[in-house]
Amino acid sequence: MTPEMTPLLPTDRFRFECGEAVPCFNACCRDLNQFLTPYDILRLKTHLGMTSGRFLGEYTVIRTGPQTGLPVASFRQEGAKDHPCPFVSPSGCRVYSDRPSSCRIYPVARLLSRSRETDQTSAHHALLKEAHCRGFGRGREWTVAEWTENQGVAPYNEMNDRLMAIIALKNRSHPGPLSLAARHAFQLALYDLDAFRTQVFENESLRGFHLDPELLEQAKTDDEALLRVGFHYIKKIVFGTDAEAREAAQ
Ligand code: SF4
Ligand code: SF4
Nearest residue CA, atom 2 of ligand 1? Predict the structure, then answer.
């Protein structure tokens, strides 16, 4: 059933509570159609102490967006008929401190729009009410800012906004499906960070690519810095006009 969406202004308040006391506990962690952003994957694989390659192989499927050709990661659905999330347990989420952004922010939806004139993006919010969710009208009242602060959404928003900027750039500069090589580069640099690190530091695939040396040094051991490098790489080499760097990277 399509969720009911109500626009939320910064001053609007909603009453909501989630936890073991709600009668629908864990109901939202089944029958998933849950997309995972690069930052979701980074947090989950770190939480589980796995390489990105192993995490992607065990817990995700990557499909190709039919219109865009972009790789889209989502949780692999378990065999049970109600398709539970691989991390749901009777006592709740097994990866709670590093759960994906969409799990965190629910029941709020964050929508980005970009001005054609200024190229600036702005965020709007809405309250998403799904029939199975019984958390509404319980607990305390929240504004969007209070809820997102309480759920630790800020670092996810920052990285997810970078992803959205790249997708907007792709749609402007490369409308239609991506080439296989560009799709592979996107998947490597944004989803499979451990393999990307090998490419960058052992195979020197960023040779000739001008990048903040401090960020690059940090990226040797810090996955968040490496993901920032990945965003720069995709933006400039795959979707941008950095032809010199593109040649150097081949
Ligand atoms: S990651 Fe956690 S909160 Fe999100 S769907 Fe899975 S079990 Fe539920
Ligand atoms: S369905 Fe709603 S209230 Fe119930 S566990 Fe999920 S988010 Fe919480």
Answer: 93
Q: What pLDDT digit, counting tens, does each position of 64-106 carry?
A: 988 888 999 999 876 667 788 999 999 999 999 999 999 999 9
Q: What single letter denotes the amino acid at residue 2? A: T
CA distance 232 to 185: 12
**239, 170 contact by CB (below 8 A):** yes
Question: How remote is the CA of residue 167 from the centroid of ligand 2, in Å?
Answer: 30
28 in contact with ligand 2, CB cutoff 6 A: yes
What's the rounded Cα separation, in Å, for the pair 224 and 241?
25
Residue nearest to atom 4 of ligand 1 (CA): 103
**If you average pLDDT over every residue of the chain, what do you get?**
90
Spell out the domain ranges in the chain. 4-152, 179-249
Task: Examine the pLDDT at 169 and tell me if it is beyond 90.
Answer: no
93 Cβ below 6 A of ligand 2: no
User: Backbone phi, then psi, for 7, in 5-degree steps?
Assistant: -60, 140
DSSP string, 164-187: HHHHHHHHHHS-SPPPHHHHHHHH
- 48 touches 95 (CB < 8 A): yes
Which single residue is written with the structure tokens 């949780």? 75
**Does the model's pTM come out above 0.85?**
yes
Concatenate the DSSP letters of all residues of 6-52 into one string.
Answer: EEE-TT--EEE--STTSTTTTGGGSS---EE-HHHHHHHHHHHT--H
pLDDT band at 206 (very low <50, low <70, confident <90, very high): confident
